[in-house]
């Protein structure tokens, strides 16, 4: 059985998190709140060259394919034929959501469960309309998938509960959330009426970034972290990076620069370039999300730092993994299995429709460190769900009695 991520990385403070706005395509990102790039420096202790054993062990653990983590007791999915699941994704044109939806639809068909995805462009008023449609249809489960913000839908979620419809929220809250019985079994950041969640590994990935840099640098690195404070998870991720690097690499120093989502295409490159000119000793640039990676690479190139500065990031987007394969400055990317996110959401739907308790396994979405030592396992060229194990679907089908 896979070691749980929170125990592998240590017990962490619990933080309030919200939707990752980065999941919107860059065309929609222009709607985000603007702000100025800024930076501040932090540093750890003075033990140059010291790397914690926990960081070393964690990096080795997550470079390998992790074992399947069962979501809970077996479910008799065969009894659910004719039940219905209605999905409201963050938006339907984003590849992130498309991949999650495809995984859910595949297993719904195997279970003979009716499955519908509500088409939308990422606008809250459209999510409201989708909720109203699902309630009018009398579906069995509504899944708010891939970042849809349940806080914008509290009246509709309560109405769904009143109608006996279950609600699952997927890839919105971080894995640092806590289950608390006074709030529908969820964290203090939950929305009353939500029945189950699939948590996202935002802070886990950021801690893995810090651990990998500690090990790769031999315990002495100057780092630029490019954040986006208007992305819900970003403040928690920044705090997680500071906490992890201080423990994993006491001599490492980190500088933080904020670039709002709406300015990624115009300001990430210039911010990285100017920070590298101002601090030529920086050796690692960490865009929190790999949709920023190509702009960070351009900034490194513009500063004349090719071969001297590496990009370390999160999401495992195939295009960014391909940059790693091509030797294009990116050297590490923490990937998350979108197929695993889809299966976990449907698992909760199956459990709720069966009258069972939802899964309470927070670290359920497979996560893996991809670097130059193993990136080819993601495919050549990389594929969106490759590299996380050969038979994730088969493992879930066994839990559901469909194998």
Describe the structure.
The chain has 403 residues and is an alpha/beta fold. The protein folds into 2 domains: 31-65 and 203-336, 3-Layer(aba) Sandwich (Rossmann fold); 77-200 and 337-366 and 390-399, Response regulator (Rossmann fold). Helix content is 36%, strand content 17%. It is built from 13 helices and 12 strands. The chain has helices spanning 5-9, 26-29, 53-63, 95-110, 124-137, 154-162, 202-216, 234-248, 264-278, 293-302, 318-325, 338-353, 392-399, and strands spanning 39-43, 84-89, 114-117, 141-145, 166-174, 196-200, 222-227, 253-258, 284-287, 310-315, 330-336, 367-371. A 7-stranded mixed sheet has the order 1-8-7-9-10-11-12, sandwiched between helices. α7 (202-216) runs parallel beside α8. It is globular. The protein starts with a helix and ends with a helix. The relative contact order is 0.18.
Beta-strand content bin: 15-25%
Based on the structure given, which CATH architecture of the largest domain is correct? 3-Layer(aba) Sandwich
Average pLDDT over all residues = 87
Amount of helix: 25-40%
**Strand order of the main beta sheet, please?**
1-8-7-9-10-11-12
Q: How many angstroms separate the termini?
A: 20 Å
Describe the main β-sheet briefly.
Answer: 7 strands, mixed
From N to C, what is the helix and strand string?
Answer: HHEHEHEHEHEEHEHEHEHEHEHEH
